[in-house]
Design goal:
There is one protein chain. This protein folds into two domains: 30 residues, no CATH class; 232 residues, Orthogonal Bundle (MetI-like fold). The chain is built from 15 helices and two strands. The N and C termini lie far apart (74 Å). The model has no long low-confidence stretch (mean pLDDT 87).
């Protein structure tokens, strides 16, 4: 007698259920049962990770070795996509633009975030409102932020140039010239520096007060307390902010896409924007996948380097002997 699909499914379900119940029942260790149930309840997340994260990553790696235009089947071409990058001027241009942005954006974000955290780390009336004002731009949608800065940086009617003229400062063509386009995007990226500030603020409030009290007894001034106590105790926070800022900065996309569209003269053609153009504008999905793999390797390599170098400058109080 033949079995239909429903019968087969019921048999498989009953078998798996029985095996699982026996596995749990015959183990007397409470830790083992707890581990089994832990994996069982995290199974939805694990499935989501495989389907929406690990799966797409593996697919991108595969498509990087193919010629694929979305509309037809992928055709295996080996390393041709990667060798093409060596002779692609826009690949090098976008990589340079991205490294430029990462260097200046991360440096300024770390500096301004730290300074702002020092300024708002006070127990004064209304300080919560001040902190909220600095953090508020972080929750504003990025499209709204980009449109706002399009108006602020507009060469002829923008607020910045209007105020510059009132103060007698030179007129700058912010987003329409190759010279000032990348600094403009860096400036816009600092609009969300409140996120970095909040993390620094949390680190500052975890510095033990007895260290400052002991330093005051020894006659240590504010500058020496900053250099010898605050910054060393904040090195784990600095390290965390540095890693997160670098990873996010390498993925800069929306500001350039909305404000400048990658121009003028490809001066704001950042790496992720170039991947987007190759994949969804020109339908070179195989080449776009290869570009994405290079970005992944670049970010992972830089992150590993930072983790290894952190052993020489990051101070963890728990590791103190």
């Amino acid at each position: 007698m033949a079995l239909d699909k429903k019968d087969v499914c019921m048999i498989v379900y009953s078998t798996v259920k029985t095996m699982f119940q026996r596995l749990v029942t015959h183990r007397t260790s409470g830790a083992f049962k707890e581990a089994i149930w832990g994996y069982f309840f995290t199974l939805p997340w694990l499935i989501g990770f495989v389907v929406f994260s690990a799966g797409p990553i593996c697919a991108v790696i595969y498509f990087g070795f193919t010629r694929y235009d979305i509309l037809s089947s992928a055709y295996w071409i080996g390393l041709k996509n990667y060798s093409k990058m060596l002779y692609d001027p826009l690949f090098w241009k976008s990589l340079y633009n991205t490294v430029y942005f990462v260097f200046f954006s991360v440096s300024l974000r770390m500096f301004l975030g730290f300074i702002l955290a020092l300024l708002v780390n006070r127990n004064i009336k209304g300080i919560t409102i001040i902190r909220s004002i600095f953090y508020l731009p972080v929750v504003v949608p990025i499209v709204a932020t980009s449109m706002l800065w399009c108006w602020i940086l507009q060469p002829h009617l923008g607020v910045i140039n209007y105020l510059s003229e009132l103060l007698g400062l030179p007129h700058i063509l912010w987003i329409v010239t190759e010279r000032w386009s990348k600094p403009s995007i860096v400036l816009v990226s600092l609009w969300t520096v409140g996120e970095t500030m909040v993390i620094f603020l949390a680190g500052l409030q975890n510095v033990p007060e007895q260290l400052y009290e002991a330093a005051e007894i020894d006659g240590t001034g504010p500058w020496n307390k900053l250099i010898r106590i605050t910054i060393p105790m904040l090195t784990p926070t600095i390290f965390f902010n540095l890693i997160i800022s670098i990873i996010n900065s390498f993925q800069v996309f929306a500001f350039a896409y909305i404000i400048t569209g990658g121009g003028p003269l490809d001066s704001t053609l950042f790496y992720v924007l170039y991947i987007f153009q190759q994949g969804f504008k020109y339908f070179h999905m195989g080449y776009a996948s290869a570009l994405a793999v290079i970005l992944l390797l670049l970010v992972v390599s830089l992150t590993i380097y930072l983790f290894r170098s952190s052993e020489s400058w990051v101070y963890y109080e728990a590791e103190r002997k």
